[in-house]
Request: fold
Amino acid sequence: MRATVIHAPHDIRVEEVPDAAIQRPEDAVVRVLRACICGSDLWAYRGEAARQPGQRIGHEFLGIVEETGSAVSGLKAGDLVVAPFMWSDGTCDFCSEGLYTSCVHGGFWGSVGFDGGQGEAVRVPHADGTLVKLPAEAVSDDQLLTGLLALSDVMGTGHHAALGAGVRKGSTVAVVGDGAVGLCGVLAAKRLGAERIIALGRHTARTDIAKLFGATDVVAERGEAAEAAVRELTGGHGAHAVIEAVGTEQSMRTAVNITRDGGAIGYVGVPHGSGTGLDLGVMFDRNIALRGGVAPVRAYIPELLEDVLSGAIDPAPVFDRAVSLDEVPDGYRAMDDRSALKVLIKP
Amino acid sequence: MRATVIHAPHDIRVEEVPDAAIQRPEDAVVRVLRACICGSDLWAYRGEAARQPGQRIGHEFLGIVEETGSAVSGLKAGDLVVAPFMWSDGTCDFCSEGLYTSCVHGGFWGSVGFDGGQGEAVRVPHADGTLVKLPAEAVSDDQLLTGLLALSDVMGTGHHAALGAGVRKGSTVAVVGDGAVGLCGVLAAKRLGAERIIALGRHTARTDIAKLFGATDVVAERGEAAEAAVRELTGGHGAHAVIEAVGTEQSMRTAVNITRDGGAIGYVGVPHGSGTGLDLGVMFDRNIALRGGVAPVRAYIPELLEDVLSGAIDPAPVFDRAVSLDEVPDGYRAMDDRSALKVLIKP
Reply:
């Protein structure tokens, strides 16, 4: 089969690899209908996250079950399924608590020896615990299928950030990061009943999506000017709930500085380096909480799925470009130079 | 009157200062019956927190109202009162939310121009919002009075840490720090229904108090050995709720490493330096939350007071030495060399 392989920073190729195949009784093989490129894939692309030459890449996909191992009981060939960005057994202590990302048998797509999502098919370990069935009829609705793909990562990650930030009915929320996750954070905050949602971003193509998703205010300034603008919009005090969806020193500092005393930062931007931009002294004096991390999206898919199916939320607009499998390297380049927000892959 | 003054690191003196007196209509003057020395006073004593030569010191006291300003309505001369470690107006947006430490008119005892708690009397700004009345009969019960003094800081701070760590009925809790705050964290966790409380500490005089307060296990190891011991006591995974009551790089690192994935650190140790010991990458991967900061003890006094009065909790054992006002410099030396846990002052 053909799949995306990373050989070195900026060297992404689509090439022939061994067919995805059942290796263990809990496995399924899924033929990929939709995949995409994640902002976090860019860290590997740019060489900021280490990869072994020849590793697969991509961790967001949905598709049709092609084959199941002998121990798989909840799925059968022909099922339409979406995969969260990590696999998990669904039965360990952590999975039982909903923290699927800490599953004792969990792992990441594209790890050495495992298929990535950006290919024709994927071997799925612990298929029963990992995959979530979708209504078969969704396969014929392109917009719906695209929205459902967002459940594999960005929508659930935005939701995790909103929960971490403590968003609830009537909240004032500020969102740092105008990437797909930040935008999904806006949508998640709106869904949770936030009254006021301030999106920080300078690119109107992105902030227009933020508005579509429920942002009531857009702050186009950067750095201290952005902080001052958010404070001005919030009676001088900042937002109770802040979503941090970037992960850099600057973005974390901005998040702290626009959080109201006693508020919380829901952080889902993968941190770059240790202690990134955190001034614990400032957080201490102002009782600012920090909650979040790698999102256990598997836990969120069922409830978010209902809202995508009903049309209550539609994350599809975060995908602003579509490519074929062969065009995946172009997709990386487009996301790397920020000419694309999030690239959809139709293998 | 006589009061404690800090002239330079390690130069603490008790000397004649101007009498505490009403300056504003919201003021009260409180004659101090009990005060004490805080672990955080040691940072000034050691020169690690800057003070202007001649500043007063001490932020924990209870006593008798001697005089009230014309705008004070809830207190009168003769009332027995306890003061939280910051004053607050009790009416601003933050006070209304219970975050008294962010009061827009709040401040710290011993700030330049203000009395400290380690003296014969204190001018209390915003007396109505700050002071909490105690039953008059407590004045004749030495043990009770000592327990009530703990409400000014350590008991409420331990409670704040336990809340930050998410302690609830049945929780497994680990406590980093065997100072008075850490020990009060044990007591607070027990009060909130924790089932298992693991106290980290090497000094049996302190860990004996931890046991008295409800610790079910004591870990005497340090560093990585302590982390391994806590993991072994918790099925390999760590504690869901971790109280951090030190504030150093090492203690914060220990706290992160003994927190179960998906758990929370309630931190109340004043951070020394920025980003102290925090590896955000580790916290991110394991969804560890960080909550806490300077404790709004004013919010907690009413509920904790009931339990001290009923005998349900007695924090008095954290005071293991008593001195007169003139002996306060000896008290600092004793806490600095760790021969005393927490020094009570009877002016």
